[in-house]
Amino acid sequence: MDIKSVTGSLYRVKGWITFAGVLSIIQGAITAISIVGLLVAWLPIWMGVILLKTSKALADAHEHEDEAALNEALGRLALYFKILGILSLIGLVVAVLALIAGMLVPAFFAALQAAGS
Question: How far apart are CA 1 and CA 80, in angstroms?
Answer without folding.
Answer: 25
